[in-house]
Amino acid sequence: MAGKRTIIDWFKEADQGGYAVPAFNYSDIWDMLAIVDAAVEMRSPVMLACNPLVAKAIGVEVCGGLGKTVMEQYDHPIYHHLDHSPTPELCYGAIRHGYPSVMIDASKYELSENIRITGEVVQVAHAMGVAVEAEIGRIQGKGIEGDFEGGDFLVQVDEAVKLVEQTKVDSLAVGIGTAHGFYKGKPEINFERLSEVNEAVDIPLVLHGGTGIPKEDIQKAISRGINKVNVGTIVHVTYMQNLRKSLDGAGEAPYTLDVVKPVREQIKQVVKGWIEVCMSAGKA
Ligand code: 13P
Asked: Is 85 in the pocket of ligand 1 (CB under 6 A)?
């Protein structure tokens, strides 16, 4: 039954099995269900990632209720996750409303402040049995999930060690050259630094900015310690582009469910492709 194993159990399993648990950003119920359809069909564990814009627009209570029901209704390892929370308060709202996993993103602060904020969230979350992801270094790019264009993005190994030791955080997003949104050129991932961090810390590492990274690079990153891969932009764009197509062909009095049905299928296909890339098919 889903939920018996924690997401941390799955990360350990992924580490030993040489794959990553994929995390897909949803915007509403239709792409959320398309992600679930794909994961169930492919027998892959999956995370339903809720970015702060979605959490605020729909309401963390409603998102939480939805996520909780979906996790309970499917006999499948599905984990609702709050992505890139800029504040502890939003994490606490998510924890109150049943998210089994939250990310506190204090990476824009200097190390001591990142440690203080992350540590505070870990204390509260762990008391409630909730897993916490932190970030160190910066994820580049301009996207729904974040916005950072500076050159100073690379994770420092000693800083990652301090953050993990002092906060007891469960997983760590690392700045290694990946970016949110579409890449302007070929992504330049610093695999050496990824390996160094993986050697130095004992917790699962997370790759953000999945959209646009070639399959070979994702799989190389997995072989060097990545146990969770985040994919957002391609889900949002597939949704909106196919919605437009579907609406264009829907006549004068379109009905929501008729319009959305083919779109859900298109999103499912994209998600299935990413499950293949993460090598998580058949693991659930
Ligand atoms: P992309 O939108 O670039 O796929 O990144 C998603 C992400 O990292 C969410 O945290």
From this structure: no
Mind listing the pLDDT tens digit for each residue in 44-79? 999 999 999 999 999 999 999 999 999 999 999 999
Q: Judge contact between 132 and 95, C-beta under 8 A.
A: no
Q: Is 84 in the pocket of ligand 1 (CB under 6 A)?
A: yes
- How many angstroms does the Cα of residue 182 sit away from the middle of ligand 1? 9
User: Reduced to 3 states, what is the DSSP secondary structure of residue 21?
Assistant: strand
Say if ligand 1 is within 6 A of residue 233 CB. yes
Q: What is the pTM of this model?
A: 0.96
**Sheet bearing 179-180, strands edge to edge:** 146-148, 140-143, 179-180
The H or E element containing residue 154 is none
- The single residue listed with the structure tokens 């004068």 is 252
Q: How far apart, in whole angstroms, are the C-alpha atoms of residue 144 and residue 126?
A: 28
Residue 275 CA, ligand 1 centroid: distance in Å: 15
| Ligand 1 geometric centre to CA of 270 (Å) | 14
Rounded Cα–Cα distance for residues 166 and 240 (Å): 42
pLDDT at 2: 46
C-alpha to C-alpha distance for 159 and 168, rounded to whole angstroms: 14
Q: Which amino acid is at 80?
A: H
Task: Give me the residues of the chain with pLDDT under 50, please.
Answer: 1-3
